[in-house]
Please model this.
Amino acid sequence: MADANNVSSSESRGFCLWFTGLSGSGKSTITTHLVKELRKRGSKLEVLDGDVVRENLSKGLGFSKEDRDTNIRRIAFVADLLSRNGVPVITAAISPYREIRDEARELMGDRFIEVFVKASVEVCAERDVKGLYEKAFKGEIKEFTGVSDPYEPPLNPELTLDTEHDSAEEDAQKILTLLEERQLIPAAQPA
Amino acid sequence: MADANNVSSSESRGFCLWFTGLSGSGKSTITTHLVKELRKRGSKLEVLDGDVVRENLSKGLGFSKEDRDTNIRRIAFVADLLSRNGVPVITAAISPYREIRDEARELMGDRFIEVFVKASVEVCAERDVKGLYEKAFKGEIKEFTGVSDPYEPPLNPELTLDTEHDSAEEDAQKILTLLEERQLIPAAQPA
Model:
């Protein structure tokens, strides 16, 4: 068994947790739990979620396939810059297209950890307090992933999180376990 | 006097060397010398030059004031992400507008080190092997900084490099000295 205690925060290796999943699948909620726990362990960390990136790197881009691809490539470029310098990164954009996620994987090599945040369109729509899915079903929002725009689930993600059945805390714990096994973060201190 | 030997590469503090200057002023040449020396000292380092950023973060942007500002803001966003995580960054874009450079300064605080790479339009034009200045003088290239587009020199840069009189090696050394004084890099090992 890997001795995760060997990993101290000062010698942290970079990695990129690449979340992919529908709007409402749970990417942000799991990220929130995960960030709390990783910070407790003294890990450096940056979160590149869809909104942050659209604001700071991709203003002006829309939701066509081309624009989505450009947006995701920019996220990958920045995630690579950070992770290759030892800074862990969580990306939490929908990133619907397999090909572009695979480009990110190729760019980052074994630093890239794809996490499929899985929930059906129906469950995501039920959770949706902003009513975006309802508008998409009515055709009032065009190019809405999972409704009027494609979502291509990963074929071989490092982790699949079933958010229809697990809580966000449980899912965050699954990720922490994976990171510990790979000796990317120190093990939790006994309470 | 600062004891720069206290700084080891493993505990490097992040900073952003923000070069600004005309096309042909010497930003890239100085960067090349600097990178070589910094890598020798074991420093992590990322270079965000104009071309890298236009390719990876700003494809589709032009050279209007608005587009230039957007481009520079993206560089600043990424430079901040890196430097706040302890990764030194060199940005080597023209960055002609004072206001946007000052935004970058505000974002990064004392991690931001503005380096004015100074040479007159005439000298830059003489150096220009690609003939860009000639085309700009003839009006064949629009919005060319220093010719048909503004360049606002910094008012209080941390360092001004006079590339009309100093060699690129000398200028790189001036930067290294400043970084040593600020204990941002370890002192050079005696030969």
User: Anything to note?
Assistant: The helical segments of chain A are 27-40, 50-56, 65-83, 98-108, 121-127, 132-137, 168-181.
